[in-house]
Every structure is written in C-alpha cells, then in structure tokens.
Amino acid sequence: MADVMVAEGWRDAGYEFVCIDDCWMAPTRDERGRLQADPKRFPSGIRRLADYVHSKGLKLGIYSDVGNKTCAGFPGSYNHYDLDAQTFASWGVDLLKFDGCNSGTLELLAEGYRRMSLALNKTGRSIVYSCEWPFYLRPLQQPNYTEIKQYCNHWRNFFDVYDSWSSIKSILDWTALHQDSIVKIAGPGGWNDPDMLVIGNFGLSWDQAVTQMAMWAIMAAPLFMSNDLRRISPEAKWLLQNKETIAINQDPLGKQGYQITKDKNFELWERPLAGQAYAVAVLNQQEIGGPQNFTFSLTFLGNGLACNPACSVQQILPASRDWGVYSWVSSLSVEVNPTGTVLLKVVAL
C-alpha cells in the first residue's frame, strides 16, 4: 500500500498515513511484557516497517485498545499504557488508533484514554491519537467533548462504517441529529471522526461514493481510506484524489459543517471556509426514481451573509463546473441524482 500511495499520486494528494488496524499483534506479550508483532505477518517487526514507510515520505499508524484485550482478542494496553506508548515511539509509529473494547467500567475507560494520551506525550514523539472514547461512553452518558478534545486528536462517535449505502446514510443521519453537541468542538487539533472512506470497494454506487466524499469534506472528517489501492477504478481514484474536495475537507479555518434544512428527501448542509466562503452540499436521500430538483434561496446560506451582496458559485462534485455570479436575492436550483450529492463552493463578492 505504501508503494502504491507513492506511485499512484495518493501521497501527493495529501494521504500520508498507512494504518494497521487490529490483529497485527502476536497473541502474547514478550518476556519483558512488551507488545510484539505477529511473526508470520511481520517477520521483520514493526520498526523495520516504519523505517520503510518513512523512507517513502509517509507515516505509519498502529492499533491498540484501552482494555485488557483488543476487540479481536489480542493483548490490550490496560496496565501497560506507559510501556506500550514507549514501545510505539521506539518503533517510530506516527499514529495510534486506540479502541474501547473490554475496558470494564466507564471510569476505567476514561482513565485509560487519559493515561494513554499523557503516556504518548511523555515519549517526546509526535503521535496522532485517535480515540473511540465517546462511542463507548454514549450509550450510558453524554460525552464531555471539551475534555475529550484535551486528550484526543480525533474521536469516533458512532458505529463502524460498512461498505454499504445504509451505513453511510446512518452515519449522516446520526451526525445531523447530534450536530448541536458535536459540531462546535471540532477544530484544529481535535476532530469528530465519522469513520473511514469506503469508496473504491463494491458496496456504493457512483452517486453514493460522491455523497460520501462530499459529506466527509463538509463534516471536516479525517480522510482514511479502507480499500485496496491496487484494485481501484479510475473513477474512484479521481474522486478520492479530487483536489478541490480535499481542499474543502482540509480548509484552514477548521470549522465543521452542519445541516441547515431538511425538506422532504433533500438535505442542505453548509460549512464555513476561510476567505468568506462556504461549502454547500445538496443531498438527495430518495432512493428511487430519477434526478430531482431542489431550489433554495441564497439567503439561507451563512445566516444570509454567504452571498451578500453577491457571490460566485462553483460546482465541485459530481464534476467541476462554474455556475457564475449570483445576487443576494437569487435562488439556486440544483439537480441531484437519487442518493447523490452536489457539492458547491460559494464565495462572497
């Protein structure tokens, strides 16, 4: 994957991490209590792999768990937070995804996430810290996102993504439903994580793939792909490497977008961008029939300020197109395919 990321333009598009998820470990710790890699899967060990990945100008991510076992039953980090953080740092790891299985009580869960955060910082190595803290907390109590952001760089709120439209739809529905409690906390250093991009697999239609890419950009989501880059269609590659969409996703203002209105099967979302601009997404939730038109007043956007006194409108997805200049009192009419999204960039003039 690291080789393909360099050869096929992924690194240059901005994708810089190669992440290993659960099941990389040997079933037991070594005689000194340290985690060790599965000797069949990683015969040269993780340090050698990290060196190789770094030699390609990329970074390596790894996985552990706050409890005594990972979700798949391998050794967890409970009671070994400092040791595991030191081990990861000594290997040259750049990101840790820290899962929440088998943690016992909510107190132990929170304590473990705090302790691993401090342990990673103590190593002196810059390691991105990806948490599942709020997801495991949520069934039982409302997460304190101010606290979570003090310790984590991004955090999962909802169930794992699957390679299916129903999964993408449920993530978007959940996010819209809870936006009042999660949108405002997002910003540089700490992000809501709606889970991985599954574009380039087999479960999404083209329009649904466009929807995931557009909406993950609106949501200021970390972009981690779960796919096989050796077997990816040119269309999926074009979409995942789309410069204008990635620029919206990575906008320096760092504000997460939100849903501003829902009308029958249509949803209208916006995201404030740097330079008096807004990203706007029009999503058609209808799953049958043909393309439908959605018409809305530009005064809806940015509390009436996005197009004041005028604005330029550029379509980013599903294809790049210049829509020209509009005045404050204009309406936009957008044709959207079933389960598809049109992503626009609106710049005040």
Percent helix, as a range, is: 25-40%
Counted by DSSP, the helix tally is: 12
Spatial ordering of strands, largest sheet? 1-2-3-4-5-6
Mean pLDDT: 97
Organism: Buteo japonicus
Pfam families: Melibiase_2 (PF16499), Melibiase_2_C (PF17450)
Subunit structure: Homodimer.
GO molecular function, one term: alpha-galactosidase activity
What does the model show?
With 349 residues, the chain is of the alpha/beta class. The chain is built from 12 helices and 14 strands. The chain has helices at 2-7, 10-13, 45-55, 81-91, 106-122, 133-137, 145-151, 165-177, 179-182, 206-218, 234-240, 243-249, and strands spanning 17-19, 59-65, 95-99, 128-131, 154-156, 191-193, 258-263, 266-273, 277-284, 292-297, 310-317, 321-327, 331-336, 341-348. The strands form 3 sheets. It has a 6-stranded parallel beta sheet with strand order 1-2-3-4-5-6. Strand 3, helix 5 (106-122) and strand 4 form a beta-alpha-beta unit. It is globular, with a radius of gyration of 21 Å. The termini are far apart.
List keywords for this structure.
alpha/beta, 349 residues, 12 helices
Structure at a glance:
The protein is α/β, with parallel strands linked by helices.
Per-chain topology:
Elements: H1 2-7, H2 10-13, E1 17-19, H3 45-55, E2 59-65, H4 81-91, E3 95-99, H5 106-122, E4 128-131, H6 133-137, H7 145-151, E5 154-156, H8 165-177, H9 179-182, E6 191-193, H10 206-218, H11 234-240, H12 243-249, E7 258-263, E8 266-273, E9 277-284, E10 292-297, E11 310-317, E12 321-327, E13 331-336, E14 341-348
Pfam families: Melibiase_2, Melibiase_2_C
InterPro entries: Aldolase_TIM, GH, Glyco_hydro_27, Glyco_hydro_27/36_CS, Glyco_hydro_b, Melibiase/NAGA_C
Domain Alpha galactosidase A C-terminal: 254-340
